[in-house]
Design a protein that fits this description.
With 157 residues, the protein is of the alpha/beta class. It contains five helices and four strands.
């Protein structure tokens, strides 16, 4: 592996050790799918965001992405997911997982953002002046540069 790729992989692995590594009070970033289930990550997000006070972000990695499907998840998962949305959650999946065919955006609930990660490919598209990659919407990403960087690192290809 090249040093840049190793650094991104290490950063992602360290970050994935907790679903709420950057959650402090209202807001935050929660990761579901590697060490924590979708339900665990969303439960922590709801505990940290008891009332609609702003945005918080839940990045779902396979296999937790299945709980973002429009049909299929258990009723309790759908109820929890809807509660998170009502409190300001923005659900995200990695473009890398879409490209690999592991996640199909057409099967997900409306509003799930497909976000890019950092790439070691020198020919990969670069973010525009506002920090967005092609196809991304500003509302999908946190205003915090640190949280946005964590999302990009976690979704690195």
């Amino acid at each position: 592996m090249r040093p840049f790729a190793c650094r991104n992989l290490l950063a992602a692995l360290v970050f994935l050790a907790s679903p709420c590594a950057l959650a402090q009070g209202a807001g935050g970033l929660y990761i579901a799918g590697v060490n924590f289930t979708f339900t665990q990550a969303v439960s922590q997000a709801l505990a940290d965001n008891p009332a609609p006070q702003g945005r918080f972000f839940i990045l779902a990695m396979p296999p937790a992405t299945a709980d973002l499907a429009a049909s299929g998840p258990a009723t309790d998962v759908v109820r929890q997911r809807n509660e998170a949305l009502a409190r300001g959650a923005q659900f995200l999946v990695c473009r890398r997982d879409v490209q690999r065919g592991v996640v199909d955006p057409a099967t997900l609930i409306p509003g799930v953002g497909v976000v890019w990660g950092w790439s070691s490919d020198p020919n990969a598209p670069q973010p525009d002046a506002s920090g967005l990659f092609p196809g991304e919407q500003a509302g999908w990403l946190p205003q915090s540069a640190e949280l946005a960087r964590r999302i990009r690192s976690t979704c690195a290809s």
